[in-house]
Amino acid sequence: MTETSATRPKTSGPGRTLIVFYFIMWIAALARSIFEIVTHFEVAPLAYLLSLFAGIVYLIATIALITPGRRAYLVARTAITIELVGVLVVGTLSVVDLSLFPFEGDRSTVWAYFGLEYLLIPLALPILGLLFLRSQRAVFERAAR
To answer: In this structure, is the dihedral angle defined by the CA atoms of residues 8, 9, 10 and 11, taken in order, positive or negative?
Structure first.
């Protein structure tokens, strides 16, 4: 069976744009966290580990968004939900307790201040991702048959 737009909606239009943003965030979060962990982990271990976790979540979401099928849809939905919860929890904590994540480029995390250092993309991306997946659910259900 050949793959058509009915079975691979994610690789064109808004789906492709979403994948590009997830790919960029994956590279940005993972590269930043690995560099910081290797060069000066002791400065802000919590922030660096959270950035590493965020990078892994972005990686999983990116792969799941590229992969066709119901299982990939469920993995993408789970990863993006975890991302949204992470952004909201870490963002709230960073605003409530400034000592946890000082607003300094080398001591912060991707999700601190709701992703302000990343132009709030970490806050908008999971919302848009979940809305996109919701709009494509029927397509994924058809593809699973």
So the answer is: positive
